């Protein structure tokens, strides 16, 4: 998914540890104009920007497409990251400049590797009446951030126990392991807990964890979290304890070892320096600007370049917003 804010924040992301479970509340961000679909953004935040390599988390819906207009994110660029799409309800068509065309469906993960550069579009299907899901980004480590772009799709089988059900889409949890390839160790799973269920599950003590509440409520290590909250669990423990509220809970559990690198994240780019981000933006604008100096009206007219061309996508590409009137900060 794009970050189509007109004035996106520049974010210098640096992992840090906490003494105990932290509760992170979201901010609402409209994806586009006044009728745009709103999302609840819990990463990045000023006081915490990364959980493992997870650097961006938008949680949206359930939204009636008849009211929100659905999702129509035209071709836009990415660098230095992997996008992870997870749906609870609805269906979205993904197209990217590496030639991949795939559907995003509930409980099936789509992971796109941007690497040195990719462009893609995401459009909800005509038959979708309700959209509900999460869009996440994973920062690529310095050694791998210029890798070739790529795409993986995986539909995890359900694993279940007394009072709980799970789909593990990245890493390992509850005796199940995903085959999806990532560039740093990661955990990603959907959990559904029946009312009052207590689940104790082993976790890697080197991982920091995030528990996003999608439905209901849950206690995470003794800290109560409600819908749209993200509970941060620092590394050091070998067990995650979740206690569902009276209405039960549906959760996303995310994690990984502390990233260990700082990144500069602006708009849809993850880089390391001001100069890199400026060049990424310039490269995209060169590709989408026609001989008349205007953005081409059809993405099939985009020129070849770093970010490629999304096939058979007539939507007008999204131009990059203007850079702030100051130098983007480098890692100190």
Automatic annotation (TrEMBL):
Signal sequence bounds: none
Residues in Pirin C-terminal domain copies: 190-286
Region annotation Disordered: where it falls in the sequence: 313-332
Keywords, comma-separated and alphabetical: Iron, Metal-binding
Alphabetized Pfam families for the sequence: Pirin (PF02678), Pirin_C (PF05726)
InterPro entries: Pirin, Pirin_C_dom, Pirin_N_dom, RmlC-like_jellyroll, RmlC_Cupin_sf
Top-level division of the source organism's lineage: Bacteria
Pirin N-terminal domain boundaries: 39-138
Co-factor(s): Fe cation
Binding site for Fe cation: 76, 78, 120, 122
Keyword Metal-binding: yes
Gene Ontology molecular function: any one: metal ion binding
PANTHER family: PIRIN (PTHR13903:SF8), PIRIN-RELATED (PTHR13903)
Protein name stated in the entry: Pirin family protein
Originating organism: Nocardioides kongjuensis
Lineage summary: Bacteria, Bacillati, Actinomycetota, Actinomycetes, Propionibacteriales
């Amino acid at each position: 998914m794009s970050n189509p804010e007109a004035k996106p924040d520049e974010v210098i992301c640096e992992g840090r540890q906490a003494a105990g479970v932290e509760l992170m509340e979201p901010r609402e961000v409209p994806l586009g104009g006044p009728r745009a679909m709103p999302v609840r953004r819990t990463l990045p935040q000023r006081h915490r920007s990364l959980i493992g390599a997870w650097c961006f988390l938008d949680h949206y819906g359930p939204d009636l497409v008849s009211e929100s207009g659905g999702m129509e994110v035209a071709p836009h660029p990415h660098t230095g990251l992997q996008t992870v799409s997870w749906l609870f309800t609805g269906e979205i068509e993904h197209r990217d400049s590496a030639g991949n065309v795939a559907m995003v469906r509930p409980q099936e993960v789509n992971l796109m590797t941007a690497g040195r550069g990719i462009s893609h579009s995401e459009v909800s299907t005509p038959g979708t009446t309700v959209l509900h899901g999460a869009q996440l980004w994973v920062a690529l480590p310095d050694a791998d951030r210029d890798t070739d772009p790529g795409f993986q799709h995986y539909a995890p089988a359900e694993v279940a126990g007394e009072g709980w059900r799970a789909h593990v889409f990245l890493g390992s949890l509850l005796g199940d392991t995903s085959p999806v390839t990532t560039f740093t160790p990661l955990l990603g799973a959907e959990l559904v807990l029946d009312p009052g269920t207590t689940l104790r599950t082993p976790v890697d003590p080197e991982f920091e964890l995030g528990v996003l509440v999608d439905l209901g409520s849950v206690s995470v290590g003794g800290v109560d979290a409600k819908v749209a909250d993200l509970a941060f669990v620092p590394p050091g423990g070998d067990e995650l304890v979740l206690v569902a509220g009276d209405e039960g809970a549906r959760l996303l559990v995310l994690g990984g070892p502390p990233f260990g690198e700082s990144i500069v994240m602006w708009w849809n780019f993850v880089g390391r320096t001001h100069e890199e981000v400026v060049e990424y933006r310039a490269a995209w604008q060169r590709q989408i600007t026609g001989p008349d100096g205007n953005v081409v009206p059809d993405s099939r007219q985009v020129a070849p370049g770093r970010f490629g061309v999304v096939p058979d996508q007539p939507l007008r590409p999204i131009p990059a917003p203007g850079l702030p009137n100051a130098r983007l900060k480098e890692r100190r």
